[in-house]
Amino acid sequence: MEQRISLITLGVTDLARSRYFYEHGLGWQPSSASNEQVSFFQTGSMVLALYGKTALAQDAQLAPEGTGFGGIALAYNVRQREEVDAVLAEAQAAGATLLTSAQETDWGGYAGYFADLDGYPWEVAWNPHFPLLDDGSVQLPQ
Amino acid sequence: MEQRISLITLGVTDLARSRYFYEHGLGWQPSSASNEQVSFFQTGSMVLALYGKTALAQDAQLAPEGTGFGGIALAYNVRQREEVDAVLAEAQAAGATLLTSAQETDWGGYAGYFADLDGYPWEVAWNPHFPLLDDGSVQLPQ
């Protein structure tokens, strides 16, 4: 198995509402491959998809019920420390919930969390140990 | 907010066990930035991180309890239809659970699902509508 991920699919309750959040709230451009059942956003080498949560569970043959913390967090790293608060504010203005205000982290960065409309947690972080390439890619040391 | 994702973090129960699964089971190479608390894997323009589930919940100030479907699926797309069954078999040999055997999909592809050691669902898919670039990136139509 090659070392890569093709898509992350978020199972959402209301696709139109979630698409509006990512498209107009965060300013992302959906692909023309999107339709009434699914929205696709190009994110670097991979794709973020929004799809009905019940349909997603059915595809994986899992029971759709679930409560509490789903166990996954997404992260958006910024180029400059000052951007963290700005991005958290942008997400809140778009309807996201602030989970933690930005603060110094024990790993030497500065970060906070918001939850999107379905509660999926996003960390917004400035991480001086993981500088971003010009195109926004994260490049780890080997 | 730029249109990109920096990291996906999977909250795991036993980091050593999960790292072994991704490193030796699936053959992925951890970054030297990994340590006893967290494992990092470069995946194209972004990073897959493995981190304790309780610690991850605490970082996001969420209660760590959760049951059932977490609402997120990851996907690994292959270059050739025949690879789907091989990758599902590779994951099972590494200790993953088969959720659905590979089958024709209603969108014209061929796909199945496995769950990793913490139950996170991975779709393994051949999607003729989303051809992969040479480096494995997915490139959507604009």
Task: Give a short summary of the structure.
By secondary structure, chain A is α/β, with parallel strands linked by helices. Chain A is built from three helices and eight strands, in the order βαββαββαβββ.
Give a written overview of the molecule.
The first copy, chain A, is an alpha/beta fold and 142 residues long. Chain A is built from three helices and eight strands; from the N terminus they run E-H-E-E-H-E-E-H-E-E-E. The first copy, chain A, has a four-stranded mixed sheet with strand order 5-8-7-6, with helices on one face. A three-stranded mixed sheet of chain A has the order 1-3-2. In chain A, a hairpin with a 5-residue loop joins strand 6 and strand 7. The longest helix of chain A has 11 residues, at 15-25. The first copy, chain A, starts with 6 loop residues before the first strand and ends in a 16-residue tail after the last strand. The model of chain A has no long low-confidence stretch (mean pLDDT 96). Chains A and B meet through strand 1, strand 2, strand 3, helix 2 and strand 4 of A and strand 1, strand 2, strand 3, helix 2 and strand 4 of B. Strand 4 of chain A pairs antiparallel with strand 4 of chain B, so a sheet runs across the interface.
